[in-house]
Amino acid sequence: LVPDIRELIEVDDVMEDDSLRFGPNGGLVFCMEYFANNFNWLEESLGHVEDDYILFDCPGQIELYTHLPVMKQLVEQLQQWEFRVCGVFLVDSQFMVESFKFISGILAALSAMISLEIPQINIMTKMDLLSKKAKKEIEKYLDPDMYSMIEDSTNILKSKMFKKLTKSICGLIDDYGMVRFLPFDRSDEESMNIVLQHIDFTIQYGEDLEFKEPKEYEEDKSALVDEYFQDHEDE
User: Fold this and answer.
1) Are residues 114 and 193 in the same domain?
2) Rounded CA separation 15/22 (Å)
3) What per-residue confidence (pLDDT) applies to 233?
4) Strand order in the sheet with 181-183
């Protein structure tokens, strides 16, 4: 059976409690902190999990990964239980079709990566919902040239201070190659397999089986991205 945190605590119950009087965000934080204080419930719910592949569907509120310790505590607890942990950061592709939004998405992914201190795969989701024009536009964001993006972004900015800040952020991302995205299209089996391969490789799932590297390491990543978009050009 799959553990459901609602068996432990529910946001609606917290919000309806007259002694707490929390709104949606405060209620969520309270629930997550309550969860962190009751990891014994999670351990009992997971039971014997040798060689099992477990997905944790986490809340999307970014504050849980930036300035609250709850998710970090969960990661550390799982590692103490000898789990191999990998973060999968999902960003809606429909949000990422402009330079400023893309940079914002990268910063959010980078913030979570730094906070959790675990290997992280960054996924651009809902590629199947993009129009043909948007797919062509978003292609450059999957393996971005941040220095070209600087020019796209800073031309709009009037403030010299923000231009300088944007250049510094883009330069840091480009120089260290910290964040890259994989496309996820649920209508394309190959796209799903590529994502799964990267996650399996990161946690070395099934390491006692024949070793196989993900496609990105077998072929040039730009060629992989080109292949995906060529397959969808006529859609």
Assistant:
1) yes
2) 5
3) 62
4) 87-92, 120-125, 181-183
Q: Model pTM?
A: 0.80
In whole angstroms, give the CA distance from residue 116 to residue 145.
26
Question: Are residues 168 and 192 located together in one domain of the fold?
Answer: yes
The CA distance from 65 to 108, in Å, is 9
pLDDT band at 136 (very low <50, low <70, confident <90, very high): confident
Rg (CA), the chain: 20
Domain holding 78, by residue range, is 1-83
Domain check: are 34 and 62 in the same one? Answer: yes
- Please list the residues that pair with 182 across neighbouring strands: 123
**Cα angle value 38/7/83 (rounded, 5°):** 55
Distance CA 121, CA 117 (A): 12
Residue 59 makes CB contacts below 8 A (sequence gap 6+) with 28, 32
User: Cα–Cα distance between 33 and 218 in angstroms, integer?
Assistant: 42
DSSP string, 85-103: --EEEEEEGGG-SSHHHHH
| 158-204 residue pLDDT tens | 667 777 888 888 888 887 777 889 999 999 999 999 999 999 999 98
Q: Among residues of the chain, what percentage have pLDDT more than 70?
A: 83
Q: What is the CATH number of the domain that holds 169?
A: 3.40.50.300
- Strand pairing category for 120-125 and 181-183: parallel
CB 126 within 8 A of CB 97: no
